[in-house]
Write a sequence for this structure.
């Protein structure tokens, strides 16, 4: 970590990137780092493929996260957050990053995914960390930068997002210690809890009801689906599907849950396990995907009916 | 707290009671105290009006919580946990306790409810505590009793139950510090998270869908109801209604949520607030109830239709 701290301290123009389809941890870790580095007068440009999801717009500094390429393309450092591989930025940004790397711009890779490919010039990959936000918090402490309310709000948001508010496997005593410290440093826990976990759009809640109604059980496995027509009918945004698979996983007796989400040209599939018996990562490979042991994703270009048939067959033989 | 510690240390035959319709905190604090005091060879009898809910049966020691009166009715100490008033034990046990109190048996009242009436001979009422389980943890630390996995499992369960897994107002940096300590002392966080928050009976999930379907909004307030016929139709147990009001509160834009639950002779009503504007405790008084600022309960002996009319009127003028 010492080398990372030195590199950041010495850099002036820093590019910060994270993965497409951003989640609470990618946004939270980016904002925490942006705000802290701006405080010490670094010039920061933050580039993402997709927009900040509605849920996280309450955080300060979202306006610093851009989709457009910077006008001045000179950087002396790139920091990549919460990405297992360079390609996770999306094609457009990956190409841009590769150009910078060819020009020998130094890349620091900060991440907590098992699947990280150590693609950086310097890699800080800690698979025991709850979140990338937790890792950024540790770096900033090491750097002795000033923490303000907005910085710890971002990092706390990232941490609770990735741990499902301290419910998932990645939560341990250290996670709670850091949560406690962030609150002491001013994190507005209640506000964040309300925004992230207590502010489900009613259309999302209706979408969940629909998914529950359609749930089909195969022993201790369950699957359900969202049809493309549901979005229109319920006036639901696509990002409202985030986390819905966990509602299936939370059912008593369920060890493995699958949610199919039909979109224009693809069916996105989420796999979740809550018991050691089921490996979501290896199951996802049957559907062109992968991820973690307990959480993975995949996809299908077939029709929803055919995909369901395929899925049922695979679940039956699991 | 010193006096409480002394009293417990000196007592030999201790009666532990809590409220009817037990929740995670009443059960968790009882089990934590029972197991710790049994370890130091105290004779313990624990008496509750109702059975331990299904959700908490995974905890060690549930068999020590009895519904039947003890054969030998001699006690030198009563410890009441998580009860704002003696009547919260239920009529049958309240009568029994009053007999003991007439015989000058000492009563320690340990609770965190605003509405506590300080009915004990010694009262440890801390409205800033997340839970009664947190308070029992502090007492046991002061007593220097040994902690084992089963004790901290109970107390952690109580704490996460009453804070909605660290989502509610009563969570602060101290709560996280204690959670961290409990894990270091052996609390099986993942197992507890799975049992308490990731094991919803499917009938409960269906009940939630029904409540969502019936939700009615009045500005930023929402109410819904469960009819007596729903239980039979969905094969749902009464205890499955626990926490359902929070599903209404979690809807975006909702500041105040009310759930009516029709039973044979009474309609039980839950009130929840997530913003300072709404005081659930004072609102509950309009329905023969009370509790905390952000969470309270009440009841009605009228019909469900009349109760809804009354409620709508009160919500409109709130």
């Amino acid at each position: 970590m010492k080398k990372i701290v030195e590199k950041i301290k010495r850099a002036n123009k820093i590019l910060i990137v994270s993965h497409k389809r951003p989640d609470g941890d990618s946004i939270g870790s980016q904002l925490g780092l942006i705000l802290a580095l701006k405080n010490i007068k670094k010039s920061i440009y933050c580039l993402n493929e997709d927009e900040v999801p509605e849920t996280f717009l309450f955080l300060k500094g979202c306006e610093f996260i851009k989709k457009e390429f910077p006008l001045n393309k000179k950087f002396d450092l790139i920091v990549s957050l919460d990405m297992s591989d360079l390609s996770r930025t999306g094609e457009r940004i990956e190409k841009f990053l590769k150009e910078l790397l060819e020009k020998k711009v130094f890349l620091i890779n900060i991440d907590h995914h098992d699947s990280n490919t150590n693609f950086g010039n310097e890699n800080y990959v800690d698979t025991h960390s709850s979140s990338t936000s937790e890792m950024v918090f540790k770096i900033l402490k090491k750097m002795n930068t000033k923490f303000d309310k907005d910085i710890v709000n971002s990092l706390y948001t990232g941490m609770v997002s990735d741990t499902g508010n301290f419910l998932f496997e990645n939560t341990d005593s250290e996670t709670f210690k850091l949560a406690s410290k962030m609150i002491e440093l001013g994190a507005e826990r209640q506000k964040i809890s309300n925004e992230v976990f207590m502010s489900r759009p009613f259309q999302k809640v209706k979408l969940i009801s629909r998914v529950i109604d359609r749930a089909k059980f195969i022993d201790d496995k369950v699957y359900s689906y969202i049809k493309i027509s549901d979005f229109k009918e319920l006036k639901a945004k696509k990002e409202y599907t985030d986390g819905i698979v966990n509602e299936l996983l939370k059912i008593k007796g369920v060890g493995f849950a699958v949610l199919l989400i039909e979109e224009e040209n693809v069916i996105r599939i989420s796999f979740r396990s809550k018991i050691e018996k089921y490996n979501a990562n290896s199951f996802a490979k049957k559907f062109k995907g992968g991820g973690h042991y307990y959480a993975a994703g995949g996809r299908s270009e077939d029709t929803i009916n055919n995909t369901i048939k395929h899925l049922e067959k695979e679940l039956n033989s699991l």
Q: What stands out?
A: Residues 196 and 305 of chain A are 34 Å apart (CA to CA). The interface with chain B takes residues 165-169, 171-174, 176-177, 179-181, 183-184, 189-190, 193-194, 197-202, 205-206, 208-209, 212-213, 215, 247, 249-253, 274 of chain A (CB under 8 Å). The first helix of chain A runs from residue 2 to 10.
